[in-house]
């Protein structure tokens, strides 16, 4: 679940690094700052009221009008999510980069595949050829290795803006929808599978007075060549609904947060509304988790 408060993310990272033994006590001490002392009471409970008051002007950015709009909240949540994805990617690259040259090769990340496996190029799910196709999709400069941006694309294909990666994701997603196995979706297959998934997310995004497009209308709009079938590339406009990645979930979750806290239903949040619904913004964070010494240990820090 997306995390609203970057301070919570910092605490979780510190805990994981300490558990993994990658963060020494001395290094942890260097990371300590007044923010921990300021926003945690002596009983080690996060002061969410103070945190929301601190974060509100950061969210109220465009325009600065004393309110947080849905767009501003989405921008904030998606930025927190992207930062967290890049952080995890950097950690994974550091772990898997055996020769410490700052990039990842196919052999470094997937050493279980032999040279013969790679030459066979089997494209079944999880086979060497299946992985290699996505590796090549992510290797934007075609140099045979992935830097951190390319590796992030490889690890999070659902969030990729790369056309080849998006088509790869959609082909995978279509496997369970294409019941007759012809590599495309006829109208019945679309309605039974793809449209139902799209509708659930689209209903959540739409305003109360907006209607979700009918399956007939949506199918016709995406069927660019008017052959009465949809191929993977034609499904790209609804990729975020069929195979939502972390960025899409952050966007959907922002809509949920706004809906829950918007008391007067004006489509934006005041500071008072956010303070009245602190539990909504911090519901993914259990206080008992933050109370745990693994998260915030004054003695060790």
TrEMBL record:
Keyword Repeat tagged: yes
Coiled-coil positions: 11-45
Any GO molecular function: calcium ion binding
Gene3D superfamilies, A to Z: EF-hand (1.10.238.10)
Classification via InterPro entries: EF-hand-dom_pair, EF_Hand_1_Ca_BS, EF_hand_dom
Pfam families the UniProt entry points to: EF-hand_5, EF-hand_7
Keywords: Calcium, Coiled coil, Metal-binding, Repeat
Domain spans labelled EF-hand: 97-119, 126-161
SMART domains reported for this sequence: EFh
UniProt-listed PROSITE patterns: EF_HAND_1, EF_HAND_2
Descriptive protein name: EF-hand domain-containing protein
């Amino acid at each position: 679940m997306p995390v609203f408060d970057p301070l919570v993310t910092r605490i979780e990272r510190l805990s994981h690094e300490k558990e993994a033994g990658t963060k020494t006590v001395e290094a942890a001490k260097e990371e300590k700052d007044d923010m921990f002392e300021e926003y945690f009471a002596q009983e080690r409970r996060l002061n969410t009221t103070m945190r929301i008051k601190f974060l509100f002007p950061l969210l109220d950015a465009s325009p600065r009008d004393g309110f947080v709009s849905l767009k501003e909240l989405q921008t904030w949540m998606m930025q927190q999510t992207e930062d967290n994805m890049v952080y995890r990617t950097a950690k994974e690259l550091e772990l898997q980069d055996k020769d410490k040259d700052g990039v990842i090769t196919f052999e470094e990340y997937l050493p279980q595949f032999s040279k013969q496996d790679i030459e066979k190029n089997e494209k079944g799910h999880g086979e060497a050829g299946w992985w290699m196709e996505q590796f090549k999709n992510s290797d934007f400069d075609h140099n045979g290795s992935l830097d951190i941006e390319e590796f992030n694309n490889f690890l999070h294909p659902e969030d990729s803006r790369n056309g080849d990666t998006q088509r790869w994701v959609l082909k995978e997603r279509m496997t369970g929808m294409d019941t007759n196995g012809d590599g495309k979706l006829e109208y019945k297959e679309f309605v039974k599978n793809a449209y139902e998934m799209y509708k659930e997310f689209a209903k959540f995004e739409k305003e109360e007075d907006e209607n979700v497009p009918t399956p007939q209308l949506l199918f016709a709009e995406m069927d660019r060549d008017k052959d009465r079938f949809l191929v993977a590339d034609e499904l790209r406009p609804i990729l975020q609904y069929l195979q939502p990645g972390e960025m899409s979930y952050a966007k959907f979750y922002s809509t949920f947060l706004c809906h829950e806290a918007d008391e007067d239903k004006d489509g934006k949040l005041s500071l008072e509304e956010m303070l009245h619904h602190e539990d909504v913004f911090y519901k993914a964070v259990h206080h008992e988790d933050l109370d745990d010494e693994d998260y915030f240990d004054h003695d060790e820090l």
